[in-house]
Fold each of these.
Amino acid sequence: MPSPIRTLLLLAAATISLGQNTTLTTTTSSTSSSVTATSSISCATGLHLIVARGSTEPKGLGRIGVVAGNVTQEIPGSTVSAVDYPATFDAYFASVNMGVAAMNAMIAAYITACPSSKIALLGYSQGGQVAMDVVCGTSETLFTVTPDLSDAFRSNIIAVVTFGDPSHMVNQTWDEGTSNHNGIFQRANTSACEPYSPVIKGWCDKGDIYCDAGNVTGVHGTYFANYTDDATNWIVSKWNASTNSSGSPTGTAAPPTATNVAGVLQPASFGFVALLAVAGAAFGTLL
Ligand SMILES: *[C@@H]1O[C@H](CO)[C@@H](O)[C@H](O)[C@H]1NC(C)=O
Ligand SMILES: *[C@@H]1O[C@H](CO)[C@@H](O)[C@H](O)[C@H]1NC(C)=O
Ligand SMILES: *[C@@H]1O[C@H](CO)[C@@H](O)[C@H](O)[C@H]1NC(C)=O
Ligand SMILES: *[C@@H]1O[C@H](CO)[C@@H](O)[C@H](O)[C@H]1NC(C)=O
Ligand SMILES: *[C@@H]1O[C@H](CO)[C@@H](O)[C@H](O)[C@H]1NC(C)=O
Ligand SMILES: *[C@@H]1O[C@H](CO)[C@@H](O)[C@H](O)[C@H]1NC(C)=O
Ligand SMILES: *[C@@H]1O[C@H](CO)[C@@H](O)[C@H](O)[C@H]1NC(C)=O
Ligand SMILES: CC(=O)N[C@H]1CO[C@H](CO)[C@@H](O)[C@@H]1O
């Protein structure tokens, strides 16, 4: 079980090796221009996927976008949105909080616009922690506590998929992969995950530095080659199951347009995000 000190050292080492800025300014300012987009949501006739990339990946879907892309090949009329958040190693705690706020806002906005929509949440690494924090609430040590996802949205969420989530806990019903250790930011309270257990799958392999608190450097990057098809098929099977019982979500749906397919950023609640950034900056500067 890694101590908080070991965890801090790990993150500090990662920060130094990447030579990253430790200020939050540049990462927050880039999110401040898209507030108007809420009214432009058009409801997918297929599945809507909300994707959170891993630490240090360029803005957009990141590597786990391959899973989202493959799902859209299988489910016609599906759309994909990227969570617009810093995804930095430095100021990791603040970054996760901003990701949680942004993903929560995207879910709320989308379901408000499209009440019968079916949604999948995907995340790699830090993005996996974001997705699980959104669903379960944030309970990990050192992180700002956040509430679990509103029950009002539960029936819309048909799949939650993570690769290499640092908040991974062993022996959960949703665990996939070969890991038998908790992650470096192990979740303190999984109670609120339980109602979602049939729709969560988290892949974590033995030795992964983050989700398994392991020491095998390459493992964290192997999920895409090893599990993309498993994850894709599982999401499609959940979609199939959801459409079989309740009928395809149509209603207010408009045909997906080029502007809401892969990579387009959805609005978040930036005032809230800014507050969280201030709260999290204290941790960031420690690193
Ligand atoms: C830090 O950010 C500043 C301003 O964006 C940039 O000019 C500088 O190159 C960055 N430094 C590193 C190490 O990334
Ligand atoms: C997980 O389950 C295995 C098998 O029951 C058990 O040996 C192990 O101690 C458990 N690990 C934790 C962290 O609870
Ligand atoms: C864990 O979370 C549940 C649901 O959010 C809550 O009712 C419970 O009090 C929490 N347990 C602890 C030990 O904080
Ligand atoms: C890596 O982890 C394994 C299992 O936890 C341990 O047996 C091994 O000694 C570790 N190796 C190093 C170099 O720390
Ligand atoms: C994942 O794939 C790599 C090769 O890319 C392989 O070495 C490794 O054993 C695989 N891991 C699992 C758990 O199957
Ligand atoms: C999902 O349903 C489609 C259409 O019935 C079917 O072709 C496909 O094999 C199903 N996929 C999975 C993974 O269940
Ligand atoms: C719907 O359910 C029926 C009966 O359970 C099954 O035969 C069929 O394959 C399902 N269709 C899809 C698209 O999953
Ligand atoms: C099974 C399948 O369709 N896999 C595809 C997933 O997406 C990648 C990247 O677009 C393709 O290379 C795979 O063939």
Amino acid sequence: MGIWMLTTLVLTRGYAGTLMSLLAVRHVRQPYHTLMDVLDDPEVIQIWQKNSANEQLLRSVTSGIYREVMNQEELGLLIFRTQGQLSESLTSLVKPGGHVLIDVDVTVRNLIAGIFSQSGRCDYFVSRDGFLPSYGVVASQKGNPLIPAISKRVMQLTSSGIFEYWFEKQIPNSTSCLITPSTVVERVPLSLASLWGVFVMLAAGLTSSVIAFCLENFITYFS
Ligand SMILES: *[C@@H]1O[C@H](CO)[C@@H](O)[C@H](O)[C@H]1NC(C)=O
């Protein structure tokens, strides 16, 4: 009787646990966090901005990771879209899957915020790793004595975080999709189809309990 109860207990707990986790959360896959993650995937297509400094960089490097990125073009895994086409590329290519958009952080966040303002949904995640640092600078005549003073102010402005502040103030909903959770609470109504695994678990559990019960009786009977 002891083994039978134990088996039943384990299987019931397993079944309840599976049911609970199935009802509560849905896991969101976030497969790309570095440029290397993207290159390691032999199927994903990268979208870079057409006619940009980044395109120029890709087309001019002769070695290293950006050369590897450029080599993807022959394989059909690298495409270029103009800045005006990026938002549409996100909704029509990145959202269905199979594509990633690679651009300057503020550009990507701006696009995601714009889409959120229209749809109210955060359908994208931004990689943890950043690369291609991009700076805004003040240029002046060579030898201008004001340059050291200007440089100091630029450094102060940068470290004060004012650019980030302006970005948040100017772009509506700019912070709405910054933290994309890796699990989301499921709100869609459950259908029988999405619960098939649970029924398989239940059937398997009941079958194993019956077998365990019979075995137990069998052993007791013959000993
Ligand atoms: C921010 O997003 C919400 C939800 O999509 C939208 O209703 C609202 O108009 C957006 N705010 C602005 C200023 O666009």
